[in-house]
Amino acid sequence: MPTPTETVSAFCSTFLEDGGRPAVRRWFTPNTRWVNAGVSVTNGVEEAIAMIDGLETSLGISTVHIDMLAIAADGSRVLTERLDRFERADGSEIGRVMIMGIFKIEGDKIVEWRDYFDVTAVQKFSAA
Would the pLDDT of 123 be above 90? Predict the structure, then answer.
């Protein structure tokens, strides 16, 4: 069984595939709560995929590269400091956001994921 840190690291490193859809399908549960503070909240795999689909349609986000700057665990909780880079299907960059996140792990699954970031940075994506 992987450690919580290994689970989060694997999830984040594969998030760039197909907009994060395969990672969500692999590591989320039917009840995983994903909170993007001030932007969105999803519950379960299908709502998370629908949110990803919506961002691709509305903002053109096709790929998310997650650059892990720091990671630390406290039992089943994993804290991350990241630079998330958002790209269009043609590889051009939409924008970057510095993010602090917390993941709660049970077994090898993510049961909660909360991200905190400057919401105005994301709002600039839609204005561009």
Answer: no
Burial class (CB in 10 A: 0-12, 13-18, 19+), 121: middle
- Tell me the whole-structure pTM to 2 decimals: 0.93
Residue 60 zone, left/alpha/beta (φ > 0; ψ -120 to 50; rest): left
Q: Are 99 and 82 in contact (CB under 8 A)?
A: yes
CA distance 26 to 11: 8
- Average per-residue pLDDT for the chain: 94
114, 35 Cβ separation under 8 angstroms: yes
Nearest Cα to 63, choosing from 94, 41, 36, 106? 94
Residue among 82, 88, 85, 54 at smallest CA distance from 70: 82
Which residues, listed in sequence order, are joined to residue 70 by a DSSP beta bridge? 81
The dihedral through the CA atoms of 57, 60, 63, 64 has a sign that is: negative
- Name 126's bridge partners: none
